[in-house]
Design goal:
The protein folds into two domains: 86 residues, Death Domain, Fas, CATH 1.10.533.10; 222 residues, Rossmann fold. It contains twelve helices and twelve strands. The chain is α/β, with parallel strands linked by helices. Helix 2 crosses helix 5, helix 3 packs antiparallel against helix 4 and helix 11 crosses helix 12.
Length: 345
């Protein structure tokens, strides 16, 4: 079992516990004190908090601050019949379940966590300028810096420069996790450089596999790609297409259309802004649907202990509901062996 299994359960289910236990905040405090999990003085201090929601959140924070053993005792308390009678929503919930083979988590302990590289192609030889992409770059840099990553930004790279840059990083990058964000025009075969030549997803991923990047063996490697994956689009005001074949379209589609399968290499996650054959949309004043949603959901759910795949489901749900005429569905390819939780340091 993970050495922080109980701590992580409370962290990941904090919102649920807050909503459930706040109904009878004083009763759960009494049971926790009677079980010797908190002292009488701590019980008194918590009881003095006027709002029951704040009382419960303070209790959860205190338990987590005491460490794994205290968290384990608290979860054992929640499993008792008298507690389940008072809080029936706890029954069959993941927070108190006892899976025979729980999914382990990647160890994310270093600070900085690792490197987040952002490649932002805005200006091209003949293709339309990707107006609004700088907003994506700014928000990505802010969020991943907040999550504890060293952020490195590169702008306006040709396909060859992108390939050389990634190959160079594969030889030197280190840390508990690696993140690569690529913002560009795209076609079915891959992502466009500023010279309109194409780099495939395999060429983007390959420098970081276990053969070429031994420092990241067994560590999570995340790729977020905002680029078109085809020509199919539905025009809408103030939207442009990031396709090299979109002509005069004012729709910005940031999709990448590469035929990617789950790589044989492990610990990879490749999240793409749109499905095969479709455009990916970018608002000229607010940034792309996918990247902006990704940043919002990371800021909201990472502090709650949600794993990255669950965060991406939230992103999929939000992006797929955006637009009246234009529709977009992000997708991701997963070759992960464990859960990845990115708590802000």
């Amino acid at each position: 079992m993970d050495k922080k299994e109980s701590f992580n359960r409370i962290c990941q289910n904090k919102v649920f516990l807050l909503e459930t236990l706040s109904v009878e905040a004083e009763i759960i405090l009494q049971h926790v004190q009677q079980a010797g999990i908190i002292t009488m003085r701590e019980y008194g201090n918590l009881s003095d908090i006027p709002q029951r929601e704040k009382r419960v959140i303070s209790l959860l924070d205190k338990l987590m601050g005491k460490g794994e053993e205290t968290c384990r005792r608290f979860i054992e308390l929640l499993r008792k019949d008298d507690i389940l009678e008072i809080f029936p929503l706890l029954k069959d919930h993941a927070v108190i379940s006892s899976p025979a083979n729980p999914v382990r988590q990647y160890k994310i302990a270093q600070n900085p966590r690792g490197t987040c590289v952002i490649i932002n192609n805005v200006h091209f030889a003949t293709l339309k300028e990707r107006i609004g992409s700088d907003l994506d770059q700014k928000e990505l840099a802010k969020v991943f810096h907040w999550l504890g990553f060293e952020v490195v930004v590169h702008r306006n790279k040709t396909a060859a420069e992108m390939k050389n840059l990634l190959e160079g990083m594969g030889k030197t990058v280190d840390g508990d996790c690696f993140v690569c964000c690529i913002l560009s025009h795209g076609i079915k075969e891959g992502v466009c450089g500023t010279d309109e030549n194409v780099i495939s997803v395999d060429e983007i991923r390959e420098p970081f596999n276990g053969i070429n990047c031994q420092r990241l063996i067994g560590k999570p490697k995340l790729f977020f790609i905002q680029a078109c994956r085809g020509k199919r689009n539905q025009n809408r005001v103030q939207v442009q297409a990031d396709s090299s074949e979109d002509g005069e379209s004012e729709m910005e589609v940031d999709g990448d259309d590469f035929d990617i399968t789950i790589p044989a290499d492990t610990d990879f996650l490749i999240a793409r802004s749109t499905t095969d054959g479709h455009l990916s949309y970018r608002d000229l004043k607010e940034g792309s649907f996918f990247i902006q949603s990704l940043c919002r959901k990371l800021k909201k759910h990472c502090p709650e202990g949600e794993d990255i795949l669950t965060v991406l489901v939230h992103v999929n749900n939000e992006v797929s509901s955006q637009g009246i005429i234009c529709k977009q569905m992000p997708v991701h390819e997963v070759a992960m062996r464990k859960k990845l939780v990115l708590l802000p340091p």
